[in-house]
Amino acid sequence: MLKTLGGNALLAAGLYAACRGRMQVPVFPLGSMQARHPDDLNEGIPAHFDGAHPLPGRFSFEWWYFDAEMDDGHKVVCVVQRPDLRYPLKRKNCVMMLYIQTPQGEGDRHYVTFPLKELRTSTRTCDIRLGDNLIRGEYPRWELFLGYRDIRLELEFRNLTPGWARGTGSVVYGNDRRPEVLGWVVPQPRAAVGGTLEYGGRRFSVRGQGYHDHNFGSALLFKYVKCWHWGRLTSGDLTLIYADVMHTKRMGHLRVPCLLVTRGDRLLVEVGEGTDWELRADDYVPDEQGAQIYPRRVNIRFRERDVRGELDLRVRRVWEIKETMSVLGRPGGGLQRTLGRLLPSPCYYRFITEFHLDLEAEGHREDYGGETITEYMILGLRRGQLPPQGYHLHNPAGMPSVVEARWGEGR
To answer: pTM for the full model?
Structure first.
């Protein structure tokens, strides 16, 4: 999901506030949103889903995200993003983010900017060229050749499961005359990773497991989205990915849940229309910077076909905070406090989270547990404002009609 927002996003928040009184906007998922049979689910996704999406509009964006955890303790995150969303109103640059954490827990994030004209991509498949850097691939193999100063990564990500998208991965806001798009696809829910890392004059041969997703859109998110939760966890041969997007009043407070469970080399189940799904977030506390409030506990219950589960997530540590209002001075200062009561106060959190999953599938019940990284993104909530509490989806009445289409097919 969203990995970074910049200070200039405050202006976008102001635009959102100015539009709050307008009439509700329809939302149209692209492709069927019913939970699919496992045989259909395991057909994967077409190669062009991970190709570039050059959408029209001054607020269009796109990024490709990879992460990996190696057997020797190294952790790696790589992102290519256009434009550089740290400065969303300055659309002349794109950015490559590289992060290597050593087995000792040390590491720095490097943001390397390039003129936007240097980014070359394909709409048919994942093929990204940025200076001397290259990311390319399609099922079942992606290759990364990335470098900055004394850092060099040469990694192969090979699918352990088929790729996944809910529907075709895209949602359209508005109408067909002025559509605004929000898209998220997961070409590699779980991948075997191998290759080399170089930094500090040393070279390491590494192996491990990783993940790759791809986000794109043209929507001014502050207009439509209040907040979202996202997380991914692995334990043994199981992987679970979830997201829950809460929309604004002008969207009728629509909630869009996404969840995928994989076991071994198969996609086991996904959440869709008609699925029993309940997400509750509670135990909200202010962060240590006084930027916003976040939930220390999230509980998800779901049932689809013969699979049922309960996932309990408890925040152990706030790992990262990105706070838009910081451009106005110290957190909780006078100007921030005044505007925080009037305007949305966007904030992004990344947590170190303890999880416990009770899963019953195919006649067997198993417990999974461990530690993972989760995210909470606030876009349309004022400082200290709680989102509506409790949420249950079951054959929901009044869900918008589905548009049978394939966004970007044949490009």
So the answer is: 0.84
